[in-house]
Specification:
It is a single chain. With 274 residues, the protein is mostly helical. Helices cover 76% and strands 3% of the residues. It is flat, with a radius of gyration of 23 Å.
């Protein structure tokens, strides 16, 4: 009976530790979100609405590329987009301000959130496992930010450019709601950020034996189809945009196979020494 009570207290202590890690992670997000809330001009005018202006670096780069290739009829070289951004609800701008600040806070504080999660999990690992996973926080954070930048500078402008210039009738003018524009920037950036974590996910799945290099190689062709489908969903329905998005994802998948192979090799070496 006494042993059962000790186990129960240990479990409660474990939950208490998790609660404090979650509180610290939430506090980190709140602090970053508060800063984003204060500097709203920079967050909205420069970051959120940046891809809605033709002076955005992606459009300038694609315009120059089109000129080099001799493509004259392109929307990347226009003076401005044929739409306006407006707000249709009473609390729309305030709500957009709050939620955008929260998402921005999460993106900025992502390394700290990851650190709190790792601090909770790492005590349960073996010393050699903690040593081998020493660079986890740095690599995972770099991959996440690379994904966010890819979503922001590639997927977002391609999507906005296509949708802004798509027209079914000259009688219809585009007047986009502010929440719709923010949703494109948010979903493209965050989705890409999490997709770029694929090598990290594969690493841990391989460590626990749920994934093997042979499995990843065998289902590579199915992964290719899934990647193309995902690219078609998150990008405009043109082949060029889908290829641009699919290439880095396929590179990440190939890198994941390599990482999985390294993990399996290390595990086999340890078994031989034992």
């Amino acid at each position: 009976m006494a042993k059962k009570r000790v186990d129960e207290m240990s479990f409660l202590d474990h939950l208490e530790d998790l609660r404090w890690h979650l509180i610290r992670a939430t506090l980190g997000v709140v602090i970053a979100a508060t800063l984003a809330f204060i500097f709203k001009e920079f967050v909205f005018d420069v970051i959120i609405f940046g891809p809605t202006h033709m002076s955005f670096p992606t459009y300038e780069g694609l315009c120059k590329m089109s000129q080099i290739l001799g493509i004259k009829d392109t929307t990347f070289c226009a003076d401005k987009f044929p739409f306006i951004i407006q707000n249709r609800t009473v609390a729309g701008q305030f709500s957009a301000h709050i939620w955008t600040s929260i998402y921005a806070g999460f993106i900025v504080a992502f390394p700290y959130v990851l650190y709190q999660l790792w601090s909770f999990i790492s005590p349960g690992l073996m010393p050699n496992e903690r040593k081998n996973s020493r660079g986890f926080l740095i690599i995972a954070s770099i991959l996440f930010f690379l994904g966010v930048l890819f979503g922001y500078y590639i997927i977002t402008p391609l999507s906005i450019n296509f949708l802004a210039n798509y027209q079914i009738s000259e009688q219809i003018s585009n007047e986009f709601d502010v929440s719709s524009v923010i949703a494109i920037v948010r979903s493209s950036s965050l989705a890409s950020g999490f997709v770029f974590e694929l090598p990290i996910i594969i690493y841990f799945l391989t460590k626990v034996g749920l994934v093997t290099p042979q499995f990843l190689r065998t289902y590579r062709k199915y992964a290719l189809v899934i990647v193309l489908i995902l690219s078609a969903i998150i990008t405009p329905p043109d082949v060029a945009s889908q290829v641009i998005v699919a290439i880095p994802i396929l590179i990440l998948y190939q890198a994941s196979i390599y990482i999985s192979t390294l993990v399996v090799r290390k595990q086999k070496r340890k078994q031989k020494h034992v």
